[in-house]
Amino acid sequence: MKSNRVISWAAFALLAWPGPAAAAPRTFDLAVKKPHLLGASHGTLVVGDQGVEYRTSDKKDARRWTYEQIRELQIASPSRIVVRTYEDQGWTRLWTDRSFAYEVTKGAVTPEVVAFLLDKMPRAVVTAVLPPLAGAPPYRVPVKHVRGRRGSEGDLVLYDQALVYRSPQPGASRFWRFNDIASVLTLDPYRLQVTVYEGGGGPRPFTFELKTPLPPGFYDRLWAFVNAPTPLRQTTGR
User: Fold this and answer.
1) Do 33 and 76 have their domain in common?
2) 16, part of any domain
3) What DSSP assignment string belongs to 165-189?
């Protein structure tokens, strides 16, 4: 009888034990403002596991998007984020998607926020803020990004996880997962073209003038990453 009572109490304790605490949802809160033609609304841009939300007392400006509802996320600088959606602009601007621009008023968009978004976003993230990058890159080449009359200078750096254009010019740097690159092409011995999924209107070419020849193996390795079967690209590119 006593043993049955012990077993009963043990079973009750097992059922009553809540088990390991569930991990709290991770969020990043950014104090922002949304400029208007006249004035601006102020609030908090919340980046979380399920999506992005703009919380504000101005009800007409409050928004919430899952990551699947975001066509493109642009981090133009540590103080500017643009959420491009699938919403139409309306009759005044047919066939254009609606975008929501936010200016960070306190703090900044950090590399950790960028890494979090890259992990969550199924589509391309356009970011001038680079996420944390582990290890020394196997390849680096000094380049100039040719863009009309105004270009920028920096280094094109190839990691096993991504291709990075690192520039001291504000807003010029880029981080591309291999899944976000459509193609790579050597135009001639002095130019490399990287076509990426950026801008929402189709692939966008980035043309780089090479200040030195490409290191041996750079192009072959980059081409292999970009054109690898999907499982490999997902493993190495994110």
Assistant:
1) yes
2) no
3) EE-SSTTT-EEEEGGGEEEEEEEET
